[in-house]
Amino acid sequence: MYPGQYYIPQGAGLVGQPVNNGGPGTPTKQGQQMAPSVVISPSAPHVPPPGAAETMPGDLAPPRKSHVFDRLQTTPKDMSEGIRTPKRQHSSRFDISDQRQRELEKLQGFHEVPPNRRQELFMQKIDQCNIIFDFNDPTADMKSKEIKRLALHELLDYIANNRSVITEPMYPRVVEMFAKNLFRPIPPPVTPQGEAFDPEEDEPVLEVAWPHIQVVYEFFLRFIESQDFNTNIAKQYIDHHFVLQGRPTNAPQLLELFDSEDPRERDFLKTTLHRIYGKFLNLRSYIRRSINNVFFQFTYETERFNGIAELLEILGSIINGFALPLKEEHKLFLTRVLLPLHKVKSLSMYHPQLAYCIVQFLEKDSSLTEDVRPHPVPASSRLEDVVLGLLRYWPKTNSTKEVMYLNEVEDIFEVMDPAEFAKVQVPLFQQLAKSVASPHFQVAERALYFWNNEYFCNLVSDNVEIILPIMFPPLYENSKGHWNSMVYNAMKMFMEINPQLFDECSHEYNERQNSAEEREMGRQQRWEKVLERAKDRKNGVAVPPQCQVAEIPVHLDDIDQVAHDSQKRLHALKLDDSSSTERRPRESTASSVSTERPE
């Protein structure tokens, strides 16, 4: 499945069937089914799941007195006694209902009542689904939890398998039930050692209330995708507050749930938000701006948000549907929102989705030819902005990120017009030459793989007069000792395209190397003279005037350009001083007369 394509999770509407999505950016295992809901008898021992807070040392029983020898054995060497590490929040903080409300009784099925009573039964089942249970204690309210789960599945089947059953009073009740079960504060991720959660290394914490949360998402998706769903009625309840900001107390809403660690929930959220974007035209601009704000906060403030990949998947589909010509808002989104996302440390968590969005924008731009637009292409195109933006954020020391950048550049080459390529070829190949000469083998190998791309080779052959002088030094130096045979293939291609230019570059390279050796020898000799003269002065030996370092000829090429410019500025200042001194005597004499004391 490619980014930008979404669908309702398989199995939505089937009782007891798990959901298994394979969308990009969602680490679900193919072919692995979720464990079905199991009713545990009160006598069965409680075995907490791996990673739960109950399995941590010191949490299984109340603190008890111990001898000094026992404390020495149980206390780690690098931790002082009495300091407990903070526990990791093993689930979201739900607003648990009262004990009296949690005692549910099973209601009749929809097939057991006449049609005129089904709407009333629907509302009663919605009321049962508004009860929130504590899943941190598996032995609590087991019967009522199962009743609620069955009620959710019955509501799902009722909407999915019947026509003309959605009435206007159902809309506020369904939206309220969705918010009651899902909108909650997401705890900050903290590892058991008190360190910040690393999404690349640490295992995500799964929601213990998933048996209910999953069916709520499935039911809501079936509800808004039903043929009987009326957007004009629903937009009174699914509005700006539903997407981002809660009405009564600024409670976390739909967009903020993307920070959940559970990848299963983020996958359902991705589908839900995309369906809302497609159904509610009045919310599209607001949803895009809200996602932009999430990206801004992630890039410039926190650098931590779990749902960046899923939000980029949604944007990939949105960008694909942009109308032509692109609005100024969309162009700014590319340069000010998407490109800065490259500099975040956790780029590997969402880079495939980000690269897809960038390429989608460039494909839109390349379709705007002169036949479509009456005016010519501007001097600074979006492709030029993207390439220069990537070069601006190009990693200096992170080889893993550099490989990802090279992958993205090759994707950009696929949608690059030859005329646009000519604008960026010099800075782009200057960076590519550095990557070919990189001491990290993966970076150098990935850069050399560009010559296996047929379209890339065609662009290079058309502009070989500019590219070969840039690429010849790193390719020639690597050809003498590099283990990868692709270096020889690249050199051979340049030799076949323009043999005369290749010979000229080779001759120029050899001359430059020889002159560099001569300059290095001259520099070394001058330093030896300086050291010898300093040693003589230290020993009190008089240095003859003719013994100067300038005996050795100094070429202009050896002088540093910065020092040469500074010397020219000093000469200019001397000229200014000499001209100003001619105008000063009157002022100086006047001042001297005024300050002279009488004898």
Keywords:
elongated; disordered C terminus; 22 helices; 599 residues; Leucine-rich Repeat Variant; cytoplasm
Tell me the name of the CATH class of the domain at 1-23 and 87-300 and 308-318.
Mainly Alpha
* Outline type: elongated
The helix/strand class is mainly alpha
CATH homolog superfamily of the domain at 1-23 and 87-300 and 308-318: Leucine-rich Repeat Variant
Number of helices: 22
| CATH-defined fold name of the domain at 1-23 and 87-300 and 308-318 | Leucine-rich Repeat Variant
Write down the secondary-structure element order.
HHHHHHHHHHHHHHHHHHHHHH
Overall mean pLDDT: 76
DSSP summary, beta strand count: 0
Q: In angstroms, what separates the terminal alpha carbons?
A: 102 Å
Q: Which CATH architecture of the domain at 1-23 and 87-300 and 308-318 is right?
A: Alpha Horseshoe
Instruction: Report the β-strand fraction as a percent range.
Output: under 5%
The largest sheet is: none
Give a description of the structure.
- The chain has 599 residues and is mainly alpha-helical.
- Among the domains are: 248 residues, Leucine-rich Repeat Variant; 69 residues, no CATH class.
- Helix content is 53%, strand content 0%.
- The N and C termini lie far apart (102 Å).
- The N terminus and C terminus are likely disordered.
- The B regulatory subunit might modulate substrate selectivity and catalytic activity, and also might direct the localization of the catalytic enzyme to a particular subcellular compartment.
- GO terms for molecular function: protein phosphatase regulator activity.
- Belongs to the phosphatase 2A regulatory subunit B family.
